[in-house]
């Protein structure tokens, strides 16, 4: 449904910087593809060149931006990307989850499982094992498995081929993308008489409320006790989280990151792509571990770290700058050696 510019500004909690209040906007698109009746946004300065030539009818911009393409209406918002997301939900109905309760006839639900068929949705091929609990409003996707005595809270969405193994706990409003495995065995072996003997992994995984887990991510059960993913944390695709890890609230863990056994990641930490956290290492609150960084020792909170081993960002940058100078330094040393060499 089309919105006027004034209605759109109210929807996204923004302020109209430029444009007619009754301008009609009927869709959303990127800066380079938007037309005269569509909305786009400027969320990153690297897209400013596209912004300056966009043909969009309206653009959501950061507060303080007052100039733009001729004829383009502007709405200022604190967070243009988030504001644009609100508009997307309005214009693209498919973004909103539709929930139709019921159990597909080709699903397998154990008689001892605890769920209300009128308040959950279980898709074809899904398996709900003995003693498992599924909260109201939750949806279990095709071929997903909820193991024995596992619990899935209210309003959760497990996409296709998700495995939640026995006794693991999933809180409310959790989203688990396709192929993720919650509660796989931790990687534990002891070398006994020349052979690697498996160490039993008898703990669980606890995922707290409002967490999202990306596709093909694996979160290992604890050797004993719990592996914990804190409230509001968002985990990308292809992440490995090992046994007994404790991740705090509202953290971001990006694709291909690995967090080794018994590590502690405190609240509001960002672990960027391909970064690694060593076993038993603690990452302090509100830290950023940059891409491909490797934390081998405890890191204080509130700083950005990079490199291997990880150290404060500016310190690492200075070291890299010196390393780039090494070839020239070597040449200078060779020249000095020739000058000082005995005849």
Question: Topology of this protein?
Answer:
Layout: E1 3-4, H1 5-11, E2 15-18, E3 24-25, E4 27-28, E5 38-41, H2 48-53, E6 58-62, E7 73-77, H3 80-91, E8 102-103, E9 108-109, E10 121-122, E11 127-128, E12 133-134, E13 139-140, E14 145-146, E15 151-152, E16 157-158, E17 163-164, E18 169-170, E19 175-176, E20 181-184, E21 189-192, E22 195-198, E23 204-207, E24 212-213, E25 218-220, E26 226-229, E27 234-235, E28 240-241, E29 246-247, E30 252-253, E31 258-259, E32 264-265, E33 270-271, E34 276-277, E35 282-283, E36 288-289, E37 294-295, E38 304-306, E39 311-312, H4 313-340
Parallel strand pairs: 4-5, 5-6, 6-7, 8-10, 9-11, 10-13, 11-14, 12-15, 13-16, 14-17, 15-18, 16-19, 17-20, 18-23, 19-24, 20-25, 23-26, 24-27, 25-28, 26-29, 27-30, 28-31, 29-32, 30-33, 31-34, 32-35, 33-36, 34-37, 36-38
Antiparallel strand pairs: 1-3, 2-7, 21-22, 38-39
Structure explained in plain terms:
This protein is of the alpha/beta class and 343 residues long. The protein folds into two domains: 3-95, Udp-n-acetylmuramoylalanyl-d-glutamate--2,6- Diaminopimelate Ligase, Chain: A, domain 1; 102-313, UDP N-Acetylglucosamine Acyltransferase, domain 1 (3 Solenoid), CATH 2.160.10. Helices cover 15% and strands 29% of the residues. It is built from four helices and 39 strands. It has a twelve-stranded mixed β-sheet, covered by helices on one side. Strands 9-11-14-17-20-25-28-31-34-37 form a ten-stranded parallel β-sheet, with no helix packed on it. The chain has an eight-stranded parallel β-sheet with strand order 12-15-18-23-26-29-32-35, with no helix packed on it. A hairpin with a 2-residue loop joins β21 and β22. The radius of gyration is 26 Å and the shape is flat.
């Amino acid at each position: 449904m089309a919105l006027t510019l004034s209605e759109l500004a109210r929807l996204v909690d923004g302020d109209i910087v430029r444009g007619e209040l009754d301008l009609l906007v009927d869709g959303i698109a990127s800066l380079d593809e938007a037309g005269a009746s569509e909305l786009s946004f400027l969320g990153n300065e690297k897209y400013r060149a596209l912004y300056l030539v966009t043909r969009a009818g309206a653009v959501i911009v950061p507060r303080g931006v007052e100039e733009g393409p001729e004829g383009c209406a502007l709405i200022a918002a604190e967070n243009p990307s988030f504001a644009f997301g609100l508009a997307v939900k309005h214009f693209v109905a498919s973004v909103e989850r539709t929930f139709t309760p019921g159990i597909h006839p080709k699903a397998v639900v154990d008689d001892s499982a605890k769920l209300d068929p009128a308040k959950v949705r279980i898709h074809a091929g899904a398996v709900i094992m003995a003693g498992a609990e599924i909260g109201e409003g939750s949806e279990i996707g095709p071929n997903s498995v909820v193991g024995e005595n596992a619990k899935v809270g209210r309003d959760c969405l497990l996409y296709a081929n998700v495995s939640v193994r026995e006794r693991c706990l999933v809180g409310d409003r959790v989203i688990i993308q396709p192929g993720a495995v919650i509660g796989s065995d931790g990687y534990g072996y002891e070398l006994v008489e020349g052979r690697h003997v498996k160490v039993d992994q008898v703990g669980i995984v606890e995922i707290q409320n409002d967490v999202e887990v990306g596709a093909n991510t694996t979160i290992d059960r604890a050797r004993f006790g719990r592996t914990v993913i804190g409230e509001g944390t968002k985990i990308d695709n292809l992440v490995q989280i090992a046994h007994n890890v404790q991740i705090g609230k509202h953290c971001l863990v990006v694709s291909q990151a690995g967090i080794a056994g018994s590590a502690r990641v405190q609240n509001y930490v960002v672990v960027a792509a391909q970064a690694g956290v060593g076993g038993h290492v603690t990452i302090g609150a509100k830290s950023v571990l940059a891409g491909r960084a490797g934390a081998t020792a405890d890191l204080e909170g509130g700083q950005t770290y990079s490199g291997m081993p990880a150290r404060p960002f500016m310190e690492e940058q200075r070291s890299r700058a010196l390393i780039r100078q090494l070839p020239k330094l070597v040449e200078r040393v060779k020249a000095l050696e020739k000058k000082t060499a005995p005849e």
